[in-house]
Amino acid sequence: MDKHDFKTETKKLLDLVIHSLYSKKEIFLRELISNSSDAINRLRFLALTEDNVLKTQEPLTIEIIPDSEKATLTIKDNGIGMTKDEIEQNLGTIARSGTRNYLEKLSGNDLKDLPDLIGQFGVGFYSAFMVAEKIEVFSKSYLTDEKAVFWTSDVKSYTYEISDSDKNNRGTEVILHLNPDDKEFLQEWKLTELVKRFSDFVEYPIMLVTSKEKKQVNSQKALWQMQKSDVKKEEYNEFYKSLSLDFNDPLSVIHYRAEGKNEFTALAYIPSEKPPLSFFEGIKSGMNLYINRILILSHSEEILPHYLSFVSGIIDSADLPLNISREMLQENRKLMQIRQNLTKKILSELKDLKSGKRKEYEKFFQDFGHFIKEGVVSDSANRETLLDLLLFPSSSSEKGEFRDLNEYVSSLKEDQKEIYYLVSDSYELAKNTPSQEMFKTKGYEVLYLLPGIDEILVQNVQKYKDLSFVSVSEQSDSLKDKASEEDKAKFKGFLEFVSDILKDDVKEAALSSRLVDSPACIVREKGSYSANLEKVLRDINKDMPLTKPVLEINPSHSLINKMLGEFEKDRTSNKLRQRVRVLFDLSLLLEGSTPKDIGKFTDDIVQLIT
Ligand code: ADP
Question: FRET pair for 601, CA 20 to 30 Å: which of 99, 154, 262, 561?
């Protein structure tokens, strides 16, 4: 028997595997099954191209054999097998460049993050050392004139031995002598669960062999590899539910195969609605990455852009390296292409839903619209498409109805050159906000936006089809100095008076061109945040200065004219000062803000009533 030392880098990997990986031990089974499945794949390929292939009668299978008495777990296949030279090369050194690069990158500091990383990374055959103190491998190559070989390694010694073996059938048998602490991997249910979780779609039968029976544990049925026409709607839906743990059927299924230089299969689901909060925690979205039907990453948030994280599904590619890690995902060019391709498909599906199933899409948008909005801001490459997916309530819609930007632009008034919007907490509040009155009177539609995300969105995109977004509650060029010279002269003194009373809270009082029925409204500086967002930001940063708004008054309103009369008669009247304050506080309420001093506000009202 020849005794060998492992090469230095292999020792390093072994050390790492044995001492740093506790949390993801179970991946060893996935790795060994994956090796067996590869070995069978290669055999099938060679059987097509070569004559000199050792035949067996049995079907191509992978067997998992737990033996409680001996405390061994055997993984056995009838694939390509290994010759003596191959086993020396494959199991004594680290041939894979991915592993080697990865090892080179590792410095001592990285070790604390390792268990998590490496679980995703795949350390191949060596992962078996996480659970075994000793490993034996019997292998017989497909080449008819090669002798069978025996390889064994004791973990503690960092050595391995090779000798001849009398194994007479083709393939490889890996016998793990389990650590005393890892006996759980002898339990039938545990093995079944692991196969189901990681290797359910492996192309070959995976048989669990016990003293009592021999049964297949993987379903072998990779839905995504099937022809679309062969999959029933219920099968798609069931698969979605098992994948995402969602109770609802999905809104849409996207299933296609990309051909060409970068071949892959994608099966992606768009959810129909967000489950109640308590259930949402349990929903697992994200994409599962398979390489040739072997699960590499589950529920990965890295495959699609963050704003599509509500999508769940599967990518299966033959062109990616099996040892791909989360870090490497970001840099892998093929995967970037897959991401772009799938993103486009999902967006185009959403577009179709919006035009074809408007009601369902609206429901979807109410639950997941904030993701689409995030996309508008973050994905400039797809911005046009994403903008067309947006929906807003508007002054032209009933409660619960929505308009899109294209609809808005198609119904522009002839003289309208801007897109008008109003930021408000709710449809009801928006409907009653005075600052939009003149726009509505002119027949201009006003979109109702939500504080926060929508504001950031319009400030970010600024334009849609060359039309600027303009807030009806902000000072704007189109509404500047519209008051008549006559009104300006008439109200000059009164405006100064009001400005003075409210000087702590407003920048100034001014004549309004946007009011019709209401006496006054709050207007904010161009480009400033809404009162709501400002409040949120101030909660985060107490030092953020408050911007003072403008109080606009309606020169045609009877109340304003009455107050002007009072002002001209007796500008020292306390009642008048009180009325001015109440007018301001009421305007704040209509804007969705609260008066600064609620106590004073109620007192003022009570006194005015009595
Ligand atoms: P990887 O499978 O990622 O290449 P491993 O360390 O798991 O890395 O295995 C190293 C090599 O050993 C494989 O590339 C393969 O050539 C060989 N090998 C491993 N398991 C088997 C097996 N069951 N049958 C045949 N060859 C195997």
Answer: 561
Which residue owns the Cα nearest ligand 1 atom 23?
36
pLDDT interval class at 282 (50, 70, 90): low
Contact 223/243 with Cβ under 8 angstroms?
Answer: no
Closest residue by Cα to atom 4, ligand 1, is 96
Cα separation of 165 and 117, whole Å?
37
Fold for domain 223-360? Ribosomal Protein S5; domain 2 (3.30.230)
CB 319 within 8 Å of CB 262: yes
Q: Is 78 in the pocket of ligand 1 (CB under 6 A)?
A: no
Q: Whose CA is nearest to atom 3 of ligand 1?
A: 124
Structure confidence at residue 431 (pLDDT): 92
Indicate whether residue 42 lines ligand 1 (CB < 6 A).
Answer: no
Domain 2-216 listed as CATH 3.30.470.30? no
Q: Is the CB of 172 under 6 A from ligand 1?
A: yes
Per DSSP, 452 falls in state: T
Look up the CATH number of domain 482-609.
1.20.120.790
Kindly report, residue by residue over 26-78, the tens digit of the pLDDT. 888 988 998 898 899 888 877 777 777 877 778 999 999 999 999 999 999 99
Q: What is the C-alpha to C-alpha distance for residues 431 and 427, in angstroms, rounded to an integer? A: 6
Whether 319 has a pLDDT exceeding 60, the answer reads: yes
Q: Which is the closest atom of ligand 1 to the Cα of 35? A: 20
